[in-house]
# Entry
Amino acid sequence: MKKLILALVALLCATAITVQAQDAGGKKHKLTPEQQQLMTDMLAKYDTNKDGKLDKTEKAAMSAEDKAKWDAAFPHHKKKDGAAPATPAPAPSN
# Structure
């Protein structure tokens, strides 16, 4: 009897995890008109392989001004490797 209950609980947990993963996987961020325009402009300017997205090398080729615009418009597109974005060192106070 205990084995049957344990198997049912395991099956229920596996089903719940699967449903949750499917729900989370299908959600995409809705872009504002400003974000859509910036995305179009940046793809036209930097998407060298014309695949419709900016990879690491294409983002590395961005000017500092364009990177700042990109980071401000798409804060959820930060680096996934856990590295903190480069920030200038604070000026020493005397």
Helices lie at 2-25, 33-46, 56-60, 64-73.
